[in-house]
Design a protein that fits this description.
5-stranded mixed sheet, 5 helices, 7 strands
Length: 326
């Protein structure tokens, strides 16, 4: 049985750890609310720019590079969104696993894959495995800032527009040095964590570029007179100035940038939720461990008292026997 002093030291140590995990749990809980609020605040802009893009697409030629599928794509970029800090359970590991699955799929298609990583944990993970990175950024995983990810956003968009046979200029965070020409790519994918609920966060892979276009067929129903159209409402007609193609060229980069920022906001909420769950479990485990150690300490203390009583009784008996013999 362990020494009583050692047990008390362990109990004190576990209680100190419990205070830390409980504090981290409370901090993560408060950050979840803020992160969810930021996601909700960004939604109106997302809805509006999506509607504008849809209206423009319906009257444009759709000949923009960001909208065109490339059959002979040779090089693909993957943006991996991880966290800057740990203590969030399997949050980062799930992202890395999903990235490995996507990378294997792209390589099986004959494409060269280049990794771009956001978050200190992801950078450490790939550097430890000596994986070459096309670029890395960190410092804002829990509080994403649109201006802070400017170099990341612009490089991915410019690299795609340049294509695998072209090049783009170096930006802060991109591998290389100022003045270098950086090879472009034909596709851009992104792996991040979707916030589904306080208990469920799921790693998700999506293609950013080229943007997938969906053509919807309009269903026309005849009216009662078989000549007029049966419509419940009349949609507005828009005149665009300048022409729709030029507007698309200006707005599509903003649309992609919004998608990247929205994913980072989702990831921030997911990170806080994962950390809260992990710290809550750690606090519960610490409580159980303190109970177990206290029980063992009480048993050790009881055994010590019993031994002391036995020694006293034995000593008294020995003194009594020696007195009778005298």
């Amino acid at each position: 049985m362990a020494n009583l002093r050692e047990l008390r030291t362990r109990i004190k140590s576990v209680n100190s750890t419990k205070k830390i995990t409980k504090a981290q749990e409370l901090i993560a809980t408060s950050r979840i609310t803020k992160a969810q609020a930021r996601v909700a605040e960004s939604q109106p802009y997302a809805d509006e720019i999506t509607q504008v893009i849809q209206r423009l697409a319906s009257v444009s030629t759709l000949q923009h590079k960001m909208l065109q599928e490339q059959e002979d794509a040779q090089r693909a970029a993957i943006l991996v969104i991880s966290s800057d800090r740990g203590m969030c359970g399997g949050y980062n590991n799930n992202v890395f696993k999903k990235t490995a699955e996507l990378r294997k799929l792209l390589e099986e298609q004959g494409k060269e894959v280049v990794l771009y990583v956001s978050g200190s944990k992801g950078i450490t993970y790939y550097n430890f495995r000596e994986e070459p990175l096309g670029g890395s950024w960190s410092g804002y995983s829990q509080d994403p800032d649109y201006a802070a990810i400017s170099d990341l956003r612009h490089h991915l968009i410019e690299g795609f527009l340049a294509g695998s046979e072209g090049s783009t200029e170096w930006r802060e965070g991109v591998a290389g040095s100022e003045g270098d020409s950086i090879q472009g790519f034909d596709e851009v994918h992104m792996v991040y964590t979707e916030f589904e609920s306080m208990l469920t966060q799921k790693a998700h892979a999506t293609r950013l570029l080229p943007i997938e276009t969906v053509v919807e067929e309009e269903k026309i129903e005849s009216g009662d007179d078989l000549v007029s159209d049966k419509v419940d409402h009349v949609g507005a007609e828009y005149d665009f100035e300048p022409d729709p193609d030029k507007l698309l060229e200006a707005l599509l980069p903003q649309y992609v940038s919004r998608g990247i920022f929205a994913a980072m906001l989702e990831a921030a909420a997911s990170e806080s939720a994962a950390r809260r769950t992990a710290m809550s479990a750690a606090t519960d485990n610490a409580t159980d461990l303190v109970k177990q150690l206290s029980r063992v300490a009480n048993q050790a203390r009881q055994a010590q008292i019993t031994q002391e009583i036995t020694e006293i009784v034995g000593g008294a008996s020995a003194l009594g026997d020696s007195g009778e013999s005298d």
